[in-house]
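ASSEMBLY PREDICTION REQUEST
Request ID: AP-0331
Submitted by: J.K., bench scientist
Number of chains: three
Total residues: 1020
Priority: normal
Notes: Please return the full assembly, not individual chains.
Input sequences:
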Amino acid sequence: MEQSKRKTSGVIAIFVAFSLALTGCSPGSSDSGSDTSTVIIDPAEMGDVTLTVLDSFTDNASPIGLWMLDIVAGFEAKYPNIKIKRESVQDITTNLKLKLADEKNTPDVVPANQGWAGVGDLSSNGLLLNLDAYDKAYGWSEKLPTTILQQSMASTDGKNIGQGSLFGVPINQGAFVTVFYNRAMLTKLGLSVPKTFAEFEAAMAKAKSAGQTPMQLGTQDGWPASATLLALQAALDSSDDIINAVFATSNVKLADTKLEAAVTAYKKWADSGYFTKDFVGVPSGTAVQDFVDGKGLFVIWYSGYLPFKSQAQGDKFGQFLLPRADGGALTGVGASLQQFSVAAKSDAKDAAALFLNYMASQEAGDFAIKYKAPPLFGKFEASSDSPLLNDGVVTLNLITSSNGYLPYFDWATPTMLDVMTQQLQSLFGGKVSPKDVVAAMQKDYDTFRESKK
Amino acid sequence: MSASPSLARKKKKSGSKIGFLYLLPALIAYGYVVIVPTFQSLWFSFFKWNGITEAQWVGLNNYIGFLSNPLIKQAFSHTLVLILFYSVLPISLGLLSAALISKTQIRFSGFFRSVIFLPQILTSVVIAVIWRQIFSTDGILNDALRAVGLESLTQPWLGSFTFTLPVLGLAGSWTTMGLCMLLFISGTANISTELYDAAKLDGAGAIREFFSVTLPGLRPQLAVAMTLTLIAALRVFDLVWLTTRGGPGTSSITPSVLLYSKAFTQSDVGAGAAIGVLLAILALVVALVIVRVMDDKD
Amino acid sequence: MTRLNRVVTYVILISFSILVIVPLLLLLGAAFSPVQSGRIDLGDLNYSNFVNVWREAEFGKHLLISLRLCTLVVAITLIITTLAAYAIAILNVPGSKWIFTIILAGLMIPLESILVPLYFTMRAMPFGGGATTLLIAHVGLNVSFGVFWMRAAFLAIPKSLIESASIDGASPFKTFRMIVLPLTKPALITLGLLTFLWTWNDYFLAVILITDPDQLPVTLAIGEFATKYTNKYNLMSAAAVLVALPVVTLYIFFQRKFIQGVLTGALKG
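STATUS: Completed
Returned structure:
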């Protein structure tokens, strides 16, 4: 009995020691990414390379899925010595970090979302390659609008985003927080496309009195609730305040911005019955699908992301950005649909940078047009055979000329989107007031900025 | 019987060597998947770690942080509500059924048994799909309310701050109800009729009969039902994750949902591991308390 | 008195059965419904949902992944747990009492407590993020119940049979194969069924360990499906039916074993 006791306690001791050894006395490593001082941009000099590209465009029938297929085919045709190996990722936020930390299997090109939850977090942990050297070589800073490129920047000390070094390149496809409208219904209601904020609200009132759902909305699944808030912020708040808040370029107190007005407007629309009935219990997918099926006058959603079955169906709708309440030049929350970065531990850095360059090229923009998706940079004419796409191009040109791109507010901290989601749901549940929402967002903001000091 | 003692001992010795080899694969798998991670969980919970860079020793800070963290308190308070639905309701119904059900042969008993037990073998994903549909804003419940003219009672069940958790709880009841019923019904079959006869002779009514004969006789089943359902309530993840992700707001978060979000979305691995340790301790306490209470009653 | 008793009995049993069956019928009805909202239309039964789900969500691929995973898990679990239980119950390996206690402790440890570190250890493996990770995890997790279950079955074998075999000069393995296993076949079958059930039905473990979208088991696939097609209730119901089908089929044929397994297993634990 004694012997067996000793034996098994010995076994336990081995297990414990083994487990500690597995993790190292303290878990994690203090590895930092390497620096590139020599960059190669001539594909001929790169030799034969296999580039692993990670992306989340798993639906091959969607515009972005088709776009990606064209990109890969176009790139391989242009640079035959570089082969692309595509990998899919399910949920960018959860798994990307750990994939990048995996030295043996890290992909070369990775999708990192703009903002703190993506680029900021990953670069401050040394997981992304600093692209300044490539920027100099390829001239991205000259060719691409600074307000867009800014969204892929982060400071090397890990304390700030929107400034410092470049850590990613946006693709030439844009996603705006846009108002879509049902053309037939608008005409039937005797309305025309709203040119002012007041006209927009009046249109919704008219739709309601005519028995139609003015705006489709579904917030049961959480984060989509923020889309409308972002649109309202863009239309009501000053663009400087938003940009400065998100990138922390100056000390902005949210209570001094028009954030509360935006939240109040959101609540007012809900209380006026402008949204889908019982929208708090409706998943966003249902609301958006119902809109596409013809129910509802407006929906605020991301451009290029409505589930149209065909171009013909898409052209039954139009899009415009919410006009500013102060009548100023158009501003809208817009960004590249996805920005890509190079893994710090990549073994094919030059080829990866070349690929990023290709994804931001005019050719990439042409592919976007081909699939009726709005591009982001370059010269484009609103002359396709799709009225919906033309609307998008018109918006694009307007925003570019007024330099009115605004960052997504949830980029301000890694947890901001969660806070906005929970607060908005609580707002509509009658649990908190707009002031409380602003206070909660300020608290999250302050806590994060504190941790960065 | 004729083999010499030393030969038998020799056989036993070599038998034990082989025996160890037989044990080894299971022990290795078990050690790697269960034992080592259990200790690692404890170890991780003493650090602040984002999963990649170096970890920072914080001792008991993760746990102390929980005491002042409103989310943790909320999550565990939700567990209490879920216990009502996963444990109290099904067990009560099960006991009631066991008391009322005739001890004599029932026709189609096999059929009833199979049907009532069915929810136990369905995966949580299927259960989530079923109940999400029933409680959706244009689902069968609201439809039924509208049909009988109770339109005003229709709700966005899974989007409302008041109803989401109870509604999910009901889905849970639906799952564990069958198990409790079967446990108790089959349990009563084992209580000897003599005890009932004796009680009747003593002039006991139906209620007294229940408390003095049925309930004590079901003690082991009760212990099992309580342990299983309490731990099931403690561990709820799938159902919440596949319907509301803890929303609206945080009105349906559970400790497991919090564990997932802390460890994998918010990169606070230490806190996530600490929640895991807490859950293990609670599960152990539940089991021990139930065993102790049940034994004491003897 | 007993007449009333019988009526009450049937009322209770029938009510609970209805409570169980109705939601399932709703699911089945929605699965055959041509309408997106899943409204049941008995006059217009539609098989296309199943076809669509099979093609669009590549359900066939995921069903196969789950099938392969579960079969392997069952096979490996049965082998290693019976061997281990044999060593503990029959061969009486020294220290087996302590080893068994440690194994039994595993029954009390909830999945949540080991998930986080398990993720990190598995990630470091060369096959991380794939089905093999899940395979190893499930096998490890099934050891506790498997050893417990088979040990109980083995202990029920009359000692005389085993002793006479060893007297006759049979090696431990021969005794195992020729005597012990055949005598405990029912227990083995039940263990196999329960292991299959638990592995097939798992979601939480899979959602954390599987990161490769091409290797999702079917529960995870339908979870993804649910987020992609929230409003297409008819499609989702069809998918749910497909996911539940294998297990329910096994259940129909082996109901007794399933129910008995869970009940007695729980009680003995």
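REVIEWER COMMENTS: The longest strand of chain A covers residues 174-182.
SIGN-OFF: pending second reviewer
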